């Protein structure tokens, strides 16, 4: 077995590979950029090598630096993780010439299947169903419009070397096809250094289901079930699960066997994934093959018991698979939520900065956390804003969902925005729980964007109860001196008013032998808790149900988060509540005449000048953040008074770009 391997990646996947390497007794080498000098993967590895500046194009994408780092440290093999150089055939070829083992498939498989255009041609030749489309290179926007019209709208414009949702656009008409070609091409160049794009028919109401395959150098290939990846936003997966709630055994077997046949055709070895689009009648069409480890591989590991990273390392070392297809049994259900540093309330814009407080849920037989950060880490503008992958397991799908909802409640992150409330809201929905999902789920369920988690009656009860207990405990703390109560301090049982979401709830609190009872509108709720004033999370049980409520003290009350909902809550005496109701509400300043930068990023282009008349929906400028182009449009007809930025400017969030008359 290898004695030392280098991980040519960063973040959670680098940490994930290090974890398995340690288990196998293999030493690890981490590479890092300027920004990642104190990153978790650097701390976990046995050795570290600096490879350049923060931009990936100056560090993680420079093959020469990666290879030199392997030579300098004596690493016998390189694990590429996902992204960066993981599907770069030239890099794989270079390693072969240098005598360094690539922990992944051979050059042929990467070259054929890593190119979306060539892979579709190859799949069609191999008899695999493919989506109707045009695999020729698109020359320009006019050509894109011509091809799109021939295929029939809607169409998908995709970067040939793309992945991770970058370089992809859906077009429903000629105008969108022209715009989509330009944006997809620009993203393809900045992310992959390859401007080729192609166009195919966009199948509406599809499911995205993929098959995990594993092969060795002896011609053996097996499949390890499927993953349902239909919950996506901008073509990036958000929540994945295994198995799929949609497939029957016959379809699963058919898809698996077809994936194995395709893999054998390219002499595939290592872990790989064959992605399919599946329609409502369970017809499936080849989408692409990812010749690397997928982000969502943990859900497969939990239901099969197979460590995919370990298998990749063993296959790369030249070992024969000890697993056969008959050995693969799917047991239970696993689910993964991608926790990102982004603001769902602002169109999921990246939220970069320092993670001031970080406490993930405790890992167990039901909860797994794959992360690349720790308290004090920085989420940088140079890389994907992932904080962690939260994975849960249960005997059934309902159990896996239950554990996920509970684990999300127990996640504590401060210092930047995150998408936990959005993830919880999806998991709480009846439609998701029924399994009736497609890749259009988010667009259909959140047509106007995410405006905050739902606030059902059960969530209100928990929040009001927790707020009352928290407030009473704080009052008791403030009134105590050397463990003695001040006789003039408020006592348990007094009347209180809890104001939540504009509603006022009359409450009382009584101490009991087990804890306390909160009475809301005459209805008692028994509470036990270990919370103490100042604690950021309220752990306890309300009416026998375990809860975890995030607590943030505000000047005029509390900000509580539970079950995907976040609310500002005040707890007052009846008289205080009466007086507060008479106070005028302070309104925020009117910024409707300004276009503000919605995220930290760089201005790619500005299409207007002072004095221009613009129409609602007109493109005003393009801002790039996290290698994704964001088109900013006029919300209404207006006249441009002043343009405060220009192409190339790096802007902070809410910085003024344009002022209107």
Task: Describe this structure as you would to a colleague.
- An eight-stranded antiparallel sheet has the order 14-13-10-11-12-15-22-20. Strands 26-27-28-29-30-31-32-33 form an eight-stranded antiparallel beta barrel.
- It folds into six domains: 100 residues, Rossmann fold (3-Layer(aba) Sandwich); 151 residues, 2-Layer Sandwich (D-amino Acid Aminotransferase, Chain A, domain 1); 70 residues, Dna Ligase, domain 1 (2-Layer Sandwich), CATH 3.30.1490; 114 residues, 2-Layer Sandwich (D-amino Acid Aminotransferase, Chain A, domain 1); 125 residues, Glycoprotein, Type 4 Pilin (2-Layer Sandwich), CATH 3.30.700; 67 residues, RNA polymerase II/Efflux pump adaptor protein, barrel-sandwich hybrid domain (OB fold (Dihydrolipoamide Acetyltransferase, E2P)).
- With 661 residues, the chain is α+β, with helices and mostly antiparallel strands.
- The protein starts with a strand and ends with a strand.
- The longest helix is centred in the last third of the chain and has 23 residues.
- The mean pLDDT is 92.
Keywords:
661 residues, alpha+beta, Rossmann fold, D-amino Acid Aminotransferase, Chain A, domain 1, Dna Ligase, domain 1, 8-stranded antiparallel beta sheet, 41 strands, 34% strand, metal ion binding, ligase
